[in-house]
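agent: user wants the full assembly modeled, not chains individually. Plan: 1) parse entity lines 2) check alphabet per entity 3) run joint structure prediction 4) return tokens. Steps 1-2 passed, two entities, 1221 residues total. Proceeding.
--- entities ---
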Amino acid sequence: MLPPALSPFTSFWRLWRSLVILTGKPWLPPSVRQAEMSNAKERKHAKKMRNQPTNVTLSSGFVADRSVKHHNGGGKPFRAQKQESFSGTSRQRQTRMTHYSPPEPDVNEQSSSKVTFNKKGGWKAGPEGTSQEIPKYITASTFAQARAAEISAMLKAVTQKSSNSLVFQTLPRHMRRRAMSHNVKRLPRRLQEIAQKEAEKAVHQKKEHSKNKCHKARRCHINRVLEFNRRQKKNIWLETHIWHAKRFHMVKKWGYCLGERPTVKSHRACYRAMTNRCLLQDLSYYCCLELKGKEEEILKALSPMCSIDTGLTFAAVHCLSGKRQGSLMLYRANKYPREVLGPVTFIWKSERSPGDPSENRQLWIWLHPTLKQDILEEIKVVCQCTEPTKSTVCISDPLLTPNQEKSQTKLPDEKIGKKRKWKDDGENAKPIKKFIGDGTRDPHQLYSWISPTTGILISDLTMEMNRFRLIGPLSHSILTEAVKAAAVHTGEDTENTPHRWWTETCKNPDSVSLHHRQEAIFALLGGITSPAEIPAGTILGLTVGDPRINLPQKRSKVLPNPEKCQDNEKVRQLLLEGVPVECTHSFIWNQAISKSVTENKISDQDLNWKRSELLVPGSQLVLGPHESKIPLLLIQQPGKVTGDDRRGWGSGWDVLLPKGWGMAFWIPLIYRGARVGGLKEAIMHSQYKRSPYIPGDFPDCPAGILFAKEQAKNLLEKYKRRPPAKRPNYVKLGTLAPFCCPWEQLTRDWELRAQAQEESSVASSPSGEESDWRGDEVPCAPTPEKTHQVSDAMGTSLHACSEPRGRMDTECPAQMGTEWATGQDAARRHLCVLRSRASLKQLSAWCGPSSEDSRAARQVPSGGQQELTREACLSLLDRFPRALVWVSLSLLRKGSPEPHAMICVPAKEDFLQLSQDRLYCGPQESKHSDPFKSKIRKQKEKKKLEKRQNQGHTVSEGLEAGHTMAEHQAPTLGLWSGPLPDVTSHCSRVLLGFVTQGDFSMAVGCGEALGFVSLTGLLDMLSNQPAGERGLVLLRPPASLQYRFARIAIEV
Amino acid sequence: MVRFKHRYLLCEVVSDDPRCRLSLDDRVLGGLVRDTIARVHGTFGAAASSIGFAVRYLNAYTGIVLLRCRKEFYQLVWSALPFITYLENKGHHYPCFLNTLHVGGTIRTCQKFLIQYNRRQLLILLQNCTDEGEREAIQKSVTRSCLLEEESGEEDLSDGGEEAAEAME
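--- prediction returned ---
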């Protein structure tokens, strides 16, 4: 159709130009006119018009022809056709019509006929010369073709509906019938076909259910279990999942499905439960690693991973005997104080014969699932455990159960439908088994490793046990109510019961007496008013009967029973010494017994059947030797152990159960009045305890870095969802990093700052007095050197914004080397958190308001505290360069802090004003200017312009432009784009650190925050502040200009 | 429903001069109608009918024109249409007149009418045709239009490919 040399675009542009010349004003094709409309409007219009026929004219061709004639003579009719089709293509959907109106096969015919007419001087005459001639005759064929084309176009427009309503909605009301929306036959016959298509479309959109099963079949128990088993293959379900899913907002986190927060409004109620009653949490998602081997081998292997500096280690006497639970921080081997792996708790199995070094010991390390990968790898390395072992006795079930289940699912179930009697329910009564434990585990993967040299066996016991946490003073009473110690078998004909291990134990008089002692101690617990009174981390082993048997009829609230605390001497002894070592023994340590307990659990159905067969309905069910016996381990959880107010708040008990028994214990605990909390309540618990939350508050461990990244991503997404006018402009507010805390940069900036100050002070007074060392508080005019450094650092670490916690420093080793020129570079580069207890104690004493304070006075003699001198500071800094300190802040007056709030150093005038006016709220940050705003606006305009130009071009070109646009990411309005400048001195007050958790504290009654500050900055601030005002800082939320006074405290 | 109610006038431009068709354009026609209304009904009429007035569809080959105006004043427009006697474009005057075929409340009814009308025209043409070749061509277009009616449902499935083919040209 086209002359080969002419591409459609060039011809189009020529036409357009000629039009401009002719008419004097640019004639824009309709598509461009449309582009001027707002985008949404345009889309709506396009949708409405997609099926409408477009105009078919000859005039445009006529006008163009005149001018085109000068460029290239012939081909007039083509031109006309071409332009039509062109304007059509630039519109999206309307093309169809233009091409149908002169239909494809006919175009040639038509044009050829036109050409012939031209020669003859037909009705379709050329513009100038032939115009005067009158047509001799009219051909009917062209006339008919034009009609036919129009008919087809109109037909198209009429038959296709352009609105987005369903077919039956277009019918007038009197023609509508009930059930028309899903029964096509109810529609008038002419619409049935369209409706059919619509219905098919809707079916595709619907979620796909198992098609072969009706709703009733899907709800049937066996199918549901199958479905549940399928669904927990991706994310691990806890045993209480179904219970939680009905009452909680569930989130998929760390490979588990966890309840985040209750659907009912219960923030305050959960707090009350923690302080006055009992809050229950399912912590079964915590991972357990088991180490088996010789005691000294294990200790030797693990000792490089922890430091005595941070507190007790694995070898602590109480813990090693198996009497207490210990908690510590793990580091990469010999890397202290850097490269933290994370906090863990651990328990040793008590030794049967103390003092025997040859005995194999068992150690359980409990840790958060985010830390598991790193810690497991590291432990494997230090223990030299490389060989995965075949399933031994101790770890057999995770490998076997899935296979069993598979084989069992294939069994035909002939017993569905008729009611079973419990007597004849044999082996094939349970054709499909629920997944118990970890559903995602690969049966062929091994979960234990042995070391040939040290003989240590590491096994991963994740999801092999349930761990419930009871928090609050009533947790004793609830436990003692819900759980009854197992009855000792005295009988004879108990050989055929499945609980063989218990009958065996009962034959041994020693074990029976031990069981009775444990029972007595457990009974004593009921009389203690709070779990905090018992020594921290006390462990108590216990064997209990089935808790479902004495389930109360109704949910009730347990009240503490003061009558129980009569036995005063025994209680006192218990409080003083804790549980004796022997009583910590539990059969849960024995994997074989745990497994048999799991497998021989009577199902709820059978239990209820037996209950219904009781002679007197509602009376106590006595199963005798058939009752399951469950070994438990109770571990006391110390509450708030740091600081000096509210000590012991939030203490409670952790209950370890063998797997499969989760729900059997869960419901009885709830029936005794425990309130259940989710992850959010766990955060609240740790916040009020002022302890760091795992993994959010460990900025130096890999899990913490990952968590921060994810959080930043989520917050950014949330921020971007709002229109720019409805969200805070963080650039104007002077908040450089509202979604993440740039710890690395903070510490580095403080280091540079301290160095600059030192240099200046040395230059000014060579004597280097203490007062001079501090220099001026805010170096308003930094030395040229320093600015150079900063700019250099910015230049090299371009990714500072996108990866605020990435190892920026490793990218510029050369620069850092020149700056510091010391051998410690490698050590200095990494961020660390100060966890040395001695240093923290010293810091906490310095943070106090003044030395005359009673508290500080109390502490001074005890620890032999140093004065806050330059030497002490320097030595501390030398040991922990680039360190962060975990601090808690309480606001003096108003204000409730938020996460990512900034902790700043108050200026001198702030103190002055505070001393004049006790009600002074705090200074205000002045508004910053937004240098990015104009840039973004310019970019936007440019983009718009390009877009407009592209509209005329082809679609492909437009796509290319879009690609290039997407490549360099557009900066977000209201966020700092590009590398961050010096974070410390960006605002009027010098930045010290960031808050990671902060809220109004219901425990204290004022705003409280927890966060990290730079150690360098903290020491600098403390040495500059007058003794009376020491420890006062300013807090500013990211979306506010108002600073608030807060007192800093370091709790050890 | 709350909406602006319109009237659509389906007209046919009848002209002896073939050049009239060449210069038939939505702007030219719109201006022409507007001028005529101003001439016939004065300033008030022009203003009243200018609200919502538009040429919605125009086919130069068949001379079919679809005019839109508000329902309140459609009679002003309608009554002005017979007064159009020539089409003026670039200083040329082409004598023509507008023949109103249908007045409808929606574009859809007008389109439906147009289909019927065109079909009738084709049949008349077929009956009156004497030349054999012509007759065949007309027959072809008639059958095609009828076939199209049946196929119209299936077309929208295949037109995606066609569109792409068009864009390639």
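agent: reporting back. The first strand of chain B starts at residue 6 and ends at 15. The CA atoms of residues 36 and 80 of chain B lie 6 Å apart.
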